[in-house]
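Customer escalation, tier 2.

The customer says the design service returned an amino acid string that "doesn't look like it belongs to this structure." They asked us to rerun it and document both sides in this ticket. The original structure tokens are below, unchanged.
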């Protein structure tokens, strides 16, 4: 495959415009068009279609665009790793994590690892599960930590680390505080919900579907675990939260647990890496070994 033509196609697909891509790449618009037409002939597929004054991707074009992005992200990743090797052997570890591991597990692990490996530069990004997986697939990070039951991506290895208890919580003075109720009863309460793409939000909706209960009405939608629990502590609504995040609020009698009949929720934490990735840096393997020792 002509990688130059593929790079041009990727820029056009990103901008949804041949003329804008040509302007940014500083080549003529007809030259871009010719390269893309040649690429379509090479792969035997129509990749772009006209739409008004712009263009749109066909289904095959969407597939190729996604794969090409990953290819060029890998190129950038290789260049970055080579620069690290030039800089006196200093290595970097790029990590993405969903909120729970990022706030309540990784800080201790990273601090301990850094003390034993001072020459390793570590960067941690926090996002929801959908964003974290995208960053891993596009070589923007070396590994990821997520809390997620299913919907595993075929290009990623999921290494189980541990289970975490999850509780339904309400304000301390709520009528359901410390009581046992049915899931249907609790779902009548206004809920503090996480953002779209959050695995906790997806899990709650799936739980309601399994128990044939309408999902709760969202009273507040907040990004992040701490923000959501603070809203409960301030006196509003109910939510599903990891016990590791809620326990300190409960000890201060700011929130209380609601016991739902016939439900004991545990959710798995996974360490995620890209499949079939060989010759990884020594830091990568050393850190994974350290994590396994930390939870054993």
């Amino acid at each position: 495959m002509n990688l130059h033509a593929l790079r041009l196609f990727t820029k056009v697909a990103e901008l949804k415009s041949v003329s804008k891509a040509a302007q940014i790449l500083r080549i003529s618009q007809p030259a871009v068009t010719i390269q893309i037409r040649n690429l379509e002939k090479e792969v035997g597929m129509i990749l772009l279609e006209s739409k008004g004054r712009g263009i749109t991707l066909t289904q095959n074009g969407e597939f190729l665009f996604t794969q090409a992005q990953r290819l060029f992200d890998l190129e950038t990743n290789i260049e970055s790793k080579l620069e690290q090797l030039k800089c006196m052997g200093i290595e970097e570890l790029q990590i993405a994590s969903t909120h729970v591991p990022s706030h309540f597990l990784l800080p201790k692990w990273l601090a301990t690892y850094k003390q034993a490996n001072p020459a390793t530069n570590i960067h941690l990004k926090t996002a929801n599960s959908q964003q974290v997986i995208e960053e891993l697939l596009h070589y923007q990070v070396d590994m990821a930590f997520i809390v997620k039951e299913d919907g595993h991506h075929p290009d990623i290895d999921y290494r189980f680390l541990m289970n975490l208890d999850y509780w339904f919580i309400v304000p301390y003075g709520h009528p359901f505080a410390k009581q046992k109720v049915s899931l249907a009863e609790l779902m009548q309460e206004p809920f503090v919900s996480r953002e779209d793409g959050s695995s906790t939000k997806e899990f709650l909706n799936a739980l309601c579907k399994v128990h044939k209960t309408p999902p709760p009405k969202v009273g507040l939608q907040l990004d992040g675990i701490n923000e959501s629990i603070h809203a409960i502590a301030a006196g509003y609504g109910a939510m599903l939260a990891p016990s590791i995040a809620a326990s300190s609020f409960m000890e201060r009698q700011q929130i209380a647990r609601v016991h739902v009949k016939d439900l004991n929720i545990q959710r798995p934490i996974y360490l995620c890496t890209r499949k079939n990735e060989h010759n990884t840096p020594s830091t990568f393997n050393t850190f994974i070994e350290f994590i396994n020792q930390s939870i054993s």
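Tier 2 assessment: The sequence is consistent with the input. The mean pLDDT is 88. The two ends are 47 Å apart (CA to CA). Sent an explanation to the customer and offered a walkthrough call.
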